[in-house]
Amino acid sequence: MTEEQRADAIQALKAKVRGPCPLCGKYAFEVADLAHVIPHDPSGAIVLGPTIPLVMVMCKHCNLVLPFAAVPMGVMKAGEGQGEMQP
Ligand SMILES: [Zn+2]
Fold first, then answer.
1. How much distance in Å is there from the Cα of 65 to the middle of ligand 1?
2. Alpha-helix runs per DSSP H in the chain
3. Distance from residue 31's CA to the centre of ligand 1 (Å)
4. Fewer Cβ close by (within 10 Å): the C or N end of the chain?
5. pLDDT tens across 31-59, in order?
6. Alpha-carbon distance 9 to 36, whole Å?
7. What are phi and psi of 19, to 5 degrees?
Protein backbone atom coordinates (compact mmCIF):
# COMPACT_ATOMS: atom_id res chain seq x y z
CA MET A 1 0.00 0.00 0.00
CA THR A 2 1.36 3.40 -0.95
CA GLU A 3 1.42 6.35 1.43
CA GLU A 4 -1.33 7.96 -0.68
CA GLN A 5 -3.51 4.84 -0.39
CA ARG A 6 -2.86 4.72 3.35
CA ALA A 7 -3.90 8.38 3.68
CA ASP A 8 -7.04 7.69 1.58
CA ALA A 9 -7.89 4.73 3.83
CA ILE A 10 -7.52 6.81 6.99
CA GLN A 11 -9.69 9.56 5.49
CA ALA A 12 -12.39 7.05 4.43
CA LEU A 13 -12.40 5.41 7.86
CA LYS A 14 -12.63 8.75 9.68
CA ALA A 15 -15.61 9.71 7.50
CA LYS A 16 -17.68 6.63 8.32
CA VAL A 17 -16.34 4.66 11.27
CA ARG A 18 -17.41 5.62 14.77
CA GLY A 19 -16.83 3.99 18.08
CA PRO A 20 -14.10 2.10 19.85
CA CYS A 21 -12.65 -1.35 19.27
CA PRO A 22 -15.46 -3.91 19.59
CA LEU A 23 -13.32 -6.19 21.75
CA CYS A 24 -11.38 -4.01 24.18
CA GLY A 25 -13.26 -0.68 24.01
CA LYS A 26 -10.13 1.37 23.32
CA TYR A 27 -9.62 3.95 20.57
CA ALA A 28 -6.29 2.64 19.30
CA PHE A 29 -6.73 1.85 15.61
CA GLU A 30 -3.96 1.83 13.07
CA VAL A 31 -4.03 1.16 9.30
CA ALA A 32 -1.54 -1.57 8.39
CA ASP A 33 1.16 -0.79 5.84
CA LEU A 34 0.15 -3.68 3.59
CA ALA A 35 -3.12 -4.22 1.80
CA HIS A 36 -4.19 -7.83 1.64
CA VAL A 37 -6.25 -9.72 -0.85
CA ILE A 38 -8.62 -12.61 -0.41
CA PRO A 39 -8.77 -15.06 -3.32
CA HIS A 40 -12.36 -15.15 -4.48
CA ASP A 41 -13.54 -18.33 -6.16
CA PRO A 42 -17.11 -19.64 -5.84
CA SER A 43 -15.86 -23.22 -5.59
CA GLY A 44 -13.88 -22.39 -2.48
CA ALA A 45 -10.61 -23.39 -4.13
CA ILE A 46 -7.57 -21.24 -3.43
CA VAL A 47 -6.44 -19.95 -6.80
CA LEU A 48 -4.54 -16.97 -8.18
CA GLY A 49 -7.59 -15.47 -9.79
CA PRO A 50 -10.06 -12.76 -8.85
CA THR A 51 -9.34 -11.21 -5.49
CA ILE A 52 -10.93 -8.85 -2.99
CA PRO A 53 -8.45 -6.15 -1.93
CA LEU A 54 -8.67 -5.28 1.75
CA VAL A 55 -7.39 -2.54 3.99
CA MET A 56 -6.38 -4.07 7.30
CA VAL A 57 -6.99 -2.03 10.44
CA MET A 58 -5.50 -3.21 13.71
CA CYS A 59 -6.31 -2.28 17.28
CA LYS A 60 -2.95 -1.48 18.88
CA HIS A 61 -4.32 -2.41 22.33
CA CYS A 62 -5.77 -5.92 21.82
CA ASN A 63 -4.39 -6.62 18.29
CA LEU A 64 -7.79 -7.31 16.75
CA VAL A 65 -7.52 -7.02 12.95
CA LEU A 66 -10.48 -5.75 10.95
CA PRO A 67 -10.64 -6.02 7.13
CA PHE A 68 -12.28 -3.24 5.08
CA ALA A 69 -13.07 -3.49 1.36
CA ALA A 70 -10.50 -1.25 -0.37
CA VAL A 71 -12.39 -0.65 -3.66
CA PRO A 72 -15.62 0.81 -2.22
CA MET A 73 -13.49 2.89 0.17
CA GLY A 74 -11.79 4.47 -2.85
CA VAL A 75 -8.35 3.26 -1.78
CA MET A 76 -7.82 0.88 -4.71
CA LYS A 77 -9.32 0.47 -8.17
CA ALA A 78 -11.26 -2.65 -9.14
CA GLY A 79 -8.82 -5.26 -10.43
CA GLU A 80 -5.81 -3.72 -8.70
CA GLY A 81 -3.63 -6.45 -7.23
CA GLN A 82 -5.25 -9.18 -9.33
CA GLY A 83 -3.35 -12.42 -9.15
CA GLU A 84 -0.99 -11.17 -6.47
CA MET A 85 -0.78 -12.93 -3.17
CA GLN A 86 0.63 -10.73 -0.43
CA PRO A 87 1.71 -11.83 3.03
ZN1 LIG B 1 -8.96 -3.62 20.78
1. 9
2. 3-16, 70-73
3. 13
4. C
5. 987 777 766 666 766 666 667 788 999 99
6. 13
7. 95, 165
